[in-house]
Design a protein that fits this description.
The chain is α+β, with helices and mostly antiparallel strands and about 260 residues long. The protein has 8 helices and 15 strands. The termini are far apart.
Length: about 260
């Protein structure tokens, strides 16, 4: 556990370093390229690349035997049993639109099991750290977070980033069926929707096609606040996939059942 605790503290250093790089680019002109397939806009900016570079260099200096898996520069195997999973800007479309619903995701895995997740939003000065519990550090201090109770889908607030861009036709139909069963929905949250769920403001987040770096940090963030994060079928999704996060196990079960129909 000492090894984990040292890395929990170091993750805060990584988040500080990434935020210092990203900050000057936000709401400023920034170079951008499209790395998506035809018909699917998938932007990457200079801020994404530079933030991942600075985190990778810091890890290599402090924990040279740790592995690194990053969205922009791929995987570098390690020998310590620890792997850092990095998404320098989750929500690059929000970033380009000047919307502060993006974040830096830093996950830590030990022999394949996620043990730490950090979601940092430097513009809002909010940092969410999930380990055994989930804490928010902001201008008001540090708060331990808990998801809220929600017994029925009819009382739930459900979120997804974009119901057109990120779902295929079948997934969109399944999501819409679940959405209609909920009280109301909100779109466009990117990773910040999961932070809102951990804070107890949102009840469900449903996404499709998440990658390893999209989900690694979110698992301990949600579970540390008392929530659940699985695939649409209820199975674990440590490497990504179709994801459902819920604050209350009762609506998680109901949502999994409805999505399966």
């Amino acid at each position: 556990m000492d090894d984990v605790e040292r890395r929990v503290a170091f993750a805060q250093v990584l988040a500080d370093a990434a935020g210092a790089v990203i900050g000057p680019y936000f709401r400023s002109p920034v170079a951008m390229t499209d790395k998506g397939r035809p018909g699917f806009f998938d932007p990457v900016t200079e801020a994404d690349r530079r933030a991942e570079e600075v985190m990778r260099k810091s890890i290599a200096s402090e924990f040279p035997k740790d592995g690194i898996i990053g969205e922009e520069f791929g995987a570098m195997p390690g020998t310590s049993g620890f792997d850092w999973v990095l998404d320098p800007i989750d929500g690059t479309r929000s970033f380009l639109a000047g919307n502060p619903l993006w974040g830096t995701l830093i996950g830590l895995e030990h022999h394949g099991r996620t043990v730490l997740g950090v979601l940092d939003q430097p513009f809002l000065r909010e940092r969410f750290t999930g380990c055994k519990t989930t804490e928010l550090r902001d201008r008001r201090g540090t708060t331990t977070l808990h998801t809220r109770e929600c017994a029925a889908l009819a009382d739930a607030l459900i979120c997804t980033t974009h119901p057109i861009t990120y779902f295929d036709d079948q997934q969109r139909a399944r999501f819409h069926r679940l959405e209609l069963a909920c009280r109301f929905s909100r779109y466009g949250g990117d990773c910040y929707s999961y932070a809102l769920l951990a804070m107890g403001h949102v009840d469900l987040v449903v996404e499709a096609g998440l990658k390893h770096w999209d989900v690694a940090a979110l698992i301990p963030l949600i579970t540390g606040a008392g929530g659940t994060l699985t695939g649409w079928n209820g199975d674990p999704v440590p490497r990504g996939g179709n994801v459902i996060a819920a604050g209350d196990p009762r609506i998680h079960a109901a949502a999994v059942e409805l999505l399966a129909r």
